[in-house]
Request: fold
Amino acid sequence: MRVHLGWLRKLVGIDVSLDMLMDRLTMTGTEVEEVIAPAGASSGILIAQAEDVLPHPAKPNLSVVTVNYRSGKATVVTGARNVEVGGLFPYAPPGARIFDGAELSVRPFGGVDSHGMLLSCQELGLDGLDSSGGLLRLPSDAPVGEDFLNWAELDQPVLDLSITPNRGDLCSMLGVAREVSALTGADLLPVEMPDINWSDDDWTNRFQLKVSDDGCWKYLLGFGEVKFVGESPFFDRLKLVLAGMRPLNNVVDPTNLAMLLFGHPLHAFDAGRLPSNSVEVRGAVSGETIRTLDGRDRELQDKDILICSNRIPIAIAGVMGGEETEVKHDTKMILLESAVFDPARVSVTSRRLGITSQAAFRYSRSVDWGASEAAALYALGKMSQGGAVVVGRGFLKHQEDFRIDRRISLRLSSLKRVLLMDSLEQACDILEALGFKGEELSPSHAVFSVPSWRSDVEGEEDLIEEVGRVRGYHLVEPRIPGNLRGRGVIPRDFELSNSLRRLAISRGYVEVVTYSFTSPEELGALGVPHEGSPCIVNPISREHLMMRPLIVVGLIRGLKGNLSSGWRKPIRMFETGNVFSSQGEDHHIAGLVFVGKDTRSVHGERVREDFFTVKSDVAAMLELCGVEASWIRGREPFGHAGQTAHIIVGGVKVGFLCRLKPSIERELGVDEGAFVFELNMDGILNGQLPKFGGSSRFPSVSRDMAIMVASDVPAVQVENAIRQLMDPQLAVAVELFDVYMGKGLA
Reply:
């Protein structure tokens, strides 16, 4: 959010230094990322009037202009086509500097000396301020001879503020003004609402409004008859340029100015290009398309909200308007939309379509539902300046009385516990300065109503945070915790979980932390179904649309990242964390082993990883938890068909071990081999830990048995057959120690 200090001073009477203002904003959660000098290195630029314009005697593409800058006159040579007698322009005399720091002097052009130059937008660093492409034309009331930078307030810096996702109110000049007022004690100044050129025509009978989607919480439509479409006034265009926006015309620019001031997006439709005289807000039908203002066709889904006319989409609600109803030079009538939409749905649509518009940025953070009509009236007033638009009285409205009432109690005991404050009165002063209205006040507690622009405040802890950040956390003295009330006991599952982590680290694994988010594309590449994975309501990116069903998805992503950075040595990594499904959450431990290409060893050829070395790691984890598991041949969508095992405890699958299937290994570039395992810790942490039971009076005796079986018989089947014949008082263990296949056996 770019905030021009000149505009801000018209909304709040700032009487502190710039450094103090920046420090207070940053320390209270609104970081000042950059201080921008809008005029760059410009200096010494004056406002001058062209008194005479003659063609250059030697160069027909140039003009010789006599300029008057009140304290003198000068001759200037220019190639601009929009210079005219009586016009006012920025003039850089010899010795002045332009945006890039270049110093002006007297230069000859074909035998005529140019004493400095008249300036364009580019030379002032204000691209887009003047649509003519020539010299920057100034309004007729600009004071000749005055310092241009001071007159245009370009000597005031622009602060680039980093707005956190919960502070949608700070996406407006009014919101920043309220914040600055509370932080500095400066008085808020009244907003100057422009006069409106009203029409007596009852336009509301000519249009119909219908809202059939519950994602539209409030909707207003205003009307204007357009007399001409042209350039907006100079200072309106300058405000947009300093805010990082491009001026368009005197109908669209006022909607953007209202959005910057109130934080409430507006949209103007060309009413003459509507398919019918009806406007409907409805949910999209999956597969519908609309061509947006950026000229791209967008395919919609059923969670999107549409603005339609005669069932034909004319805008994506809260995101971007449609190309068919764009305001153009021949527009004769406009309908002005001011609405409040569901932030979550606007955010999902914006991110899925990749449209990061100014409107979507604000709607995703929630807009001030109480400013809908004020923002519309401000925009209509700006449009009617100079007689450009005649405004129809009244609005077509849906849920005009929409409001979100929040009343929150603040207890003195909570202030003492968190902020060590003994004064509820001081807390009330801070909150009221931020716009919270105290309704019930007593020595022990107070009740506050939350203003319409603070959708992020929902409970007492939020009020305490507001008091703490404005008052200053440095005033909260550090304390040493008191004595513990008793001896703490570490739960068995927590201790076992830590023991598993220590075991993995002792066996050469490195613990990592990966995102708990994934995407349908990532799961699809591994063949993992994603239908039951919970989706994120407000995802941070397209790659993080849903919660992970398995940890190994993130581990494989981590392996890919390491390989892409050039790492080719062996990798052993593991992670513990939650996985998610429609049934809830489970706690898992997962690992990945990459064989690697580096086989050098000073002690000879090293032992290479294979399925069985990784199996020994998993078996050690199961033994640590005191569970007896069986291993059976299994199938995983990303597992090698011949090297995939399921781990069974008590007849229930608790995990798997597999080598990645060849197609995935080829895609990753790990033909040497990569193995993954994952265990449900909820299914293995309830085993019986071994206990000391005394030593035997007799020495142990081992017996070797050679049993001939078919090569496809699993070892566990042989082991189980032996155990069924064992006397548990005499024989205590069975272990496979050798396998022979080859000469002498079928």
Summary: The chain has a mean pLDDT of 91. The longest helix spans residues 492-506. Residues 67 and 89 are 9 Å apart (CA to CA). The radius of gyration is 36 Å.
